[in-house]
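A.,

Following up on our hallway conversation. Structure tokens first:
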């Protein structure tokens, strides 16, 4: 990157101002936020209180030698760890509030990394997962702010960015997440104290949401990044077919041939990424693909043991800022080309042999 771009980056980092940041949830009032928490927080504490009772009632089904006892035991172990981390995260956030540190971003970012990284470690150890980084992955520059685009195929892969990007690289991520995740108390409480954005899943990329995504990026500095799940929802064959039909019906001047040819991913919904690159053209773009989480669509799939012994393979692509064109149409074409590379890798990396081992 040339000296002018480096200077621009330094100026942007040195003039950080949080007054322009958007609200974490557009249109949400304090009353609406606390009305939700008056439900989710008591439910969390009730679930934690009833956990020992659940173990007692489940004990007859966990006797070694019974069909399915092993996978059921793994599920209850992970459920226990999950509730412990949720309770610890919520009470740690309350402790920071009592200490007058509710606006301490560094403390809450550390809490976020601890929560997500700990849950991911618990998931890997409980279900004997192996997470491997493809040796062809690009190296991240921890001092260069970035836009990270992450594949989304499962309820479990939302923990993967912290494990792949935040913990090993020390990258401080801001998340654009679906509003449904506000039902997770720790994500709700801590997420509101950090520069994140919760958006409507399946929304229409409204001007207000795109402006909020761009505003969230304005003061991203060295060692930081904005993470988007650009497909907007989990990919399924039905959703891919609908997206392909929509793209093929588009007029020639708006055609996206690379996006229409995707075999495993959904096309990027480009509004957010283009808004970010228009606001901060000096950001590197990091695309992350992974395979192995495809069988997990809901929490109940962990009960069925579909992840036991699975290998989660990850690959990272980094495109430096100077390689991105200034023209929005050319940027979109390059985004589609990058996502097509992820799609091709996913097709080649998906296991051809037997899946995760079954356990009785």
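Then the amino acids I'd put at each of the 360 positions:
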């Amino acid at each position: 990157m040339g000296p002018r771009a480096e200077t621009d980056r330094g100026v942007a980092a040195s003039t950080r101002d949080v007054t322009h940041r958007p609200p974490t949830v557009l249109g949400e009032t304090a009353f609406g936020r606390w009305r939700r928490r008056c439900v989710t927080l008591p439910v969390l504490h009730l679930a934690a209180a009833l956990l020992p009772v659940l173990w007692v009632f489940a004990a007859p089904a966990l006797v070694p030698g019974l069909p399915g006892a092993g996978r059921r035991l793994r599920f209850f172990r992970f459920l226990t760890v999950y509730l412990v981390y949720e309770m610890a995260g919520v009470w740690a956030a309350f402790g920071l509030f009592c200490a007058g540190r509710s606006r301490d971003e560094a403390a809450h970012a550390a809490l976020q990394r601890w929560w997500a990284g700990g849950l991911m470690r618990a998931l890997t150890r409980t279900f004997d997962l192996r997470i491997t980084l493809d040796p062809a992955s690009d190296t991240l520059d921890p001092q260069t702010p970035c836009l990270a685009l992450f594949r989304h195929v499962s309820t479990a892969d939302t923990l993967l960015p912290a494990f792949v990007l935040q913990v090993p690289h020390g990258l401080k991520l801001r998340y654009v997440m679906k509003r449904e995740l506000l039902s997770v108390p720790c994500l709700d409480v801590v997420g509101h104290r950090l520069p994140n954005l919760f958006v409507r899943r399946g929304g229409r990329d409204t001007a207000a949401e795109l402006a909020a995504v761009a505003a969230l990026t304005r003061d991203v500095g060295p060692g930081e990044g904005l993470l988007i799940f650009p497909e907007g929802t989990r990919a399924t064959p039905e959703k891919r077919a609908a997206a392909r039909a929509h793209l093929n019906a588009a007029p020639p001047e708006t055609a996206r041939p690379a996006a229409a040819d995707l075999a495993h991913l959904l096309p990027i919904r480009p509004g957010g990424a283009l808004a970010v690159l228009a606001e901060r053209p000096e950001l590197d773009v990091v695309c992350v693909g992974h395979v192995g989480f495809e069988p997990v669509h809901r929490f109940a799939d962990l009960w069925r043991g579909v992840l036991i012994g699975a290998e989660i393979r990850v690959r990272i692509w980094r495109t430096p800022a100077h390689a991105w064109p200034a023209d929005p149409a050319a940027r979109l074409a390059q985004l589609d080309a990058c996502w097509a590379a992820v799609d091709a890798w996913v097709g080649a990396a998906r296991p051809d042999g037997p899946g995760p081992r079954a356990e009785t």
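Confidence is low (pLDDT under 50) at residues 1-19. Curious whether your intuition agrees with the design.

B.
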